[in-house]
Amino acid sequence: MFDDTLLSAIRARFVHVEECPFTGPRIFFENAGGALTLKSVVETSARFAAIPDNQGRDNPASQALVKVIDRSRADVRRFFNADGGTVIFGESGTELLFRLIKDACLGAPEGVVLGSTVEHPASRSAAARWAAQSDRRHVLVAHDDANGSVTAEAYAAEVAPDTAVVTILHTSPVTGMSMDLPAIVAAVRAVAPDAYIIADGIQHACHGGIDLTAAGVDGYVISPYKVFSRHGYGVAWLSDRLAALAHDTLIGGPEGNWELGTRDTGAYATFSEVVDYFDWLGAQVSDASDPRARIEAAGEAIHEHETALTQAMVHGTGNLAGLATLPGVQIVGGADNPAREGLVSFWAEGLPSAKIVERLNGAGVRTHLRKADHYSGNILAPLGQDACVRVSLAHYNSMGEVRRFLTAMQEILP
Q: Which residue ranges does the record assign to the Aminotransferase class V domain (predicted)?
């Protein structure tokens, strides 16, 4: 785990760590709904919001904006460990998943669209729509209800030589489990080497550890507001062969351009702030001199810190009982699951999850109610639940906050 000195330095770089601007002091365990924002992102957003110039003009201000954008694209590649390819910024992560999946379905040779039942509706809905529009079968690999994840072996059982487009969820925002992305891709490529593979990395990004060179996907999408930036844009990386497919663009416009209209330079600049933060953190936890190595070191340290927090949340700390031993509590994905990334979802027999979230709010602990709706029904309905409590943390959260959560839970449960 981070020591107290480093954790204090980390927390000092974020806005609203300890209190909500509307309700006052609180612990923020709703990071899967949107992580806290870096102070540098807020400052950079304000600075670029005031600039009247656009990119692509023949003046010094415009040229400076282009340099900011070029730097940001390079930062995205380093953050993703992606050599070459195309980086695009769009409206949101969901919008970019729809665009990439649409163009893959419309441009790939005849064949099946393969996804899984664990996926967020952003990718699952896009695949269902564009499979139908392109006259393809949409096959869903069943996830393991008990573990809250889907394996490479499960994909291998369903992939066929005519599999043309594949969607994969990197980490579930409901179960909290990370999928073995390189293993799933390898299982697909062993049977359908030319399939277009698109991954949803929206939930995974804030936990570090993105390596597209190792993963071998054709598309990867994140939502920066879930990785310490702000709302209003999404980021995607496309392989050269995916980027070469026909896509929405202006007649006579630049060859290979995927971005429509004038983008917000501030969005690019704020993502560079995110990458700079990972670089800074990597320098605190390692002696690495290479920028990518520092990002990798930051990701490893984040994973270690968050694992310690979730383990305490599940199994207890000191004289405080963990969720696994509290009366009537059932943990989504099981109490001991090595795939867990900074998130614990649970329900308690005899007490509605909505009541638990309400009482935690009253105790100053911000969590979230996940209902068996279009967002989470694919996970909760097979478990026979209409809702659960999602407790999602990030690396700036502390063991003291976990203890306060567990204390509140002991008081809330009958």
A: 27-405
Whether residues 199 and 99 fall in one domain = yes
Same domain, 330 and 391: yes
Overall number of domains in the chain: 2
Inter-residue contact 375 to 120 (CB < 8 Å): yes
Q: Which residue has the tokens 């870096």?
A: 38
pLDDT in tens, 225-234: 999 999 999 9
- Per residue in 141-194, pLDDT (tens digit) is 999 999 999 999 999 999 999 999 999 999 999 999 999 999 999 999 999 999
Query: What CA–CA distance (Å, rounded) separates 43 from 46?
Result: 5
Pairing between strand 219-222 and 196-200? parallel
CA distance 192 to 148: 26
Compute how many other C-beta atoms are within 10 angstroms of the C-beta atom of residue 271.
28
For residue 230, how many other CB atoms are within 10 A of its CB? Answer: 20
Under 8 Å between Cβ of 326 and 409: yes
Lowest-pLDDT range of 51-60, 301-310, 351-360: 51-60
